[in-house]
Amino acid sequence: MKFLKNVIKTMKDTTWLNAKETRRDTTTVIISSLLFIGFFAVVDWVIQSALSLLV
């Protein structure tokens, strides 16, 4: 019983993001992911090109 009371209390004390904050954070994650994808694609291409010159 104590556990459930603590869960309810914690849920009431939790601060949830509003729609604007959620949209901002989601956009940040998507843009960061695309930048990382681009970076690793370029690094992969450079490594493949360097290895093909060696072989």
From TrEMBL:
Keywords, sorted A to Z: Membrane, Protein transport, Translocation, Transmembrane, Transmembrane helix, Transport
Sequence intervals crossing the membrane: 29-47
Record GO biological process: intracellular protein transport; protein secretion; protein targeting
Entry's Gene Ontology molecular function annotations: protein transmembrane transporter activity
Protein name: Preprotein translocase, SecE subunit
Subcellular location: Membrane
Family annotation (Pfam families): SecE
Recorded GO CC terms: membrane
Keyword hit for Electron transport: no
